[in-house]
């Protein structure tokens, strides 16, 4: 059964008694043959209806969700909203600022036909004026780090409300000099290199980067033209580096930026290569393999099956080898090892190849 309601001019709070074993309640209401149904949470014995018409009679019904299902709709009950009240200033509900703008948002008021916005820099005798029907306003093109004053009023039923109290907003400080040292982004770090990039600086014609082992004053510098990135190479393993950047502007070079740091990766493990291909002729075979980082030397051994002596061949950074002057139709065996900065790896497993028969 309906309980003690609270009726306003554009809202109504409906209340009703608790129904034993109820899981949910549903209320529907209408005016001018427009029906709206709403589901309410369990044990909530009220519902607020908003955005109603002034001085209007509404009818509504209730239904209860029980374990066996929804009940039938209740008989029709009615209420009448109050008459229209005088227009009041809406409440400001949000503000935000950037270095060159501010935004103010306020609650919507029914039947407002226009809104007048004033703002100015604090200390100025001149207000900027705007007519705006919406409930938000953004001022742009402002100066960074300055105080601005804002006020507004609304037109309602042919009459203006009073002005709102003056609201003060301070834009963010920003940077008044567009030509400055760039802020870098560390894109990738390897064991002997680092890739660094940055956003283009307005007015800059060139950039410089300098780097050193952290704590050292032995800087290495390089100049970059028309690019916004660079790769530092031939670095030491597992070492902490610091670097700085600056821009060349029409007025000259900026100061060096603050120091940024990165640490290179550890010495890569020297691993055995993987075979990637092989081919044979009547008197030769060719094998290929993957490259190994930082390899100093490679050795390949091969022999005809049954022979006791191996043929040794030393290679540099090659990733393929061809053995020539072999016997047709014979089985050959080969294996490979590599020498990195830590020393020689073991040999790969023996692989077998058979040369083609001669016709």
What class, by secondary structure content?
A: mainly beta
Total count of helical runs of at least 4 residues: 0
* Sequence stretches where pLDDT stays below 50 over 5 or more residues: none
According to DSSP, the number of beta strands is 32
Please outline the helices and strands.
Layout: E1 6-7, E2 12-15, E3 24-31, E4 34-40, E5 46-49, E6 57-66, E7 69-70, E8 77-80, E9 92-97, E10 102-106, E11 112-121, E12 128-131, E13 136-139, E14 147-156, E15 159-160, E16 167-170, E17 184-189, E18 194-198, E19 206-213, E20 220-225, E21 229-232, E22 240-249, E23 252-253, E24 260-263, E25 275-280, E26 285-289, E27 297-304, E28 311-315, E29 320-323, E30 331-340, E31 343-344, E32 351-354
Explained architecture:
The chain is an all-beta fold. It has no helices and 32 strands. It has strands at 6-7, 12-15, 24-31, 34-40, 46-49, 57-66, 69-70, 77-80, 92-97, 102-106, 112-121, 128-131, 136-139, 147-156, 159-160, 167-170, 184-189, 194-198, 206-213, 220-225, 229-232, 240-249, 252-253, 260-263, 275-280, 285-289, 297-304, 311-315, 320-323, 331-340, 343-344, 351-354. The strands form 8 sheets. Strands 3, 4, 6, 7 and 8 form a 5-stranded antiparallel beta sheet that branches. Strands 11, 12, 14, 15 and 16 form a 5-stranded antiparallel beta sheet that branches. Strands 19, 20, 22, 23 and 24 form a 5-stranded antiparallel beta sheet that branches. Strand 22 (240-249) and strand 23 form a beta hairpin. The protein is elongated. The chain starts with 5 loop residues before the first strand and ends in a 5-residue tail after the last strand.
């Amino acid at each position: 059964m309906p309980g003690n309601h609270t009726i306003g001019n554009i809202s109504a709070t409906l209340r009703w008694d608790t129904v034993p074993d109820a899981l949910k309640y549903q209320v529907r209401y209408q005016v001018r043959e427009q029906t709206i149904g709403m589901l309410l949470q369990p044990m909530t014995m009220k519902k607020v209806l908003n955005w109603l018409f002034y001085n209007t009679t509404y009818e509504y019904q209730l239904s209860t969700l029980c374990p066996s299902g929804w009940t039938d709709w209740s008989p029709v009950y009615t209420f009448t909203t109050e008459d229209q009240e005088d227009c009041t200033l809406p409440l400001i509900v949000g503000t935000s600022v950037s270095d060159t703008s501010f935004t103010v948002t306020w609650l919507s008021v029914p039947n407002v036909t226009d809104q007048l916005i004033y703002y100015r820099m604090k200390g100025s005798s001149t207000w900027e004026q705007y007519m705006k029907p919406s409930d938000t306003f953004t001022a742009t093109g402002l100066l960074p780090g300055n105080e601005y004053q804002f006020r507004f009023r609304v037109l309602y039923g042919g009459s203006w409300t009073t002005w709102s109290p003056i609201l003060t907003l301070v834009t963010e400080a920003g940077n008044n000099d567009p030509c400055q040292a760039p802020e870098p982004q560390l894109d990738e770090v390897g064991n002997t290199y680092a890739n660094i990039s940055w956003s283009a600086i307005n007015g800059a014609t060139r950039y410089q980067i300098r780097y050193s082992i952290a704590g050292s004053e032995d800087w290495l510098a390089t100049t970059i033209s028309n690019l916004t990135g660079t790769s530092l190479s031939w670095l030491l393993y597992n070492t902490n580096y610091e670097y700085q950047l600056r821009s060349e502007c029409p007025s000259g070079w900026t100061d060096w930026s603050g120091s940024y740091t990165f640490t290179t990766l550890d010495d890569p493990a020297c691993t055995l290569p993987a075979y990637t291909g092989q081919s044979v002729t009547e008197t030769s075979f060719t094998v290929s393999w993957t490259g190994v980082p930082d390899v100093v030397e490679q050795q390949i051994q091969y022999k005809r099956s049954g022979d006791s002596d191996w043929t040794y061949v030393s290679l540099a950074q090659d990733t393929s080898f061809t053995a020539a002057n072999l016997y047709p139709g014979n089985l050959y065996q080969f294996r490979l090892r590599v020498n990195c900065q830590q020393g020689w790896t073991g040999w790969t497993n023996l692989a077998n190849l058979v040369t083609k028969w001669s016709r």
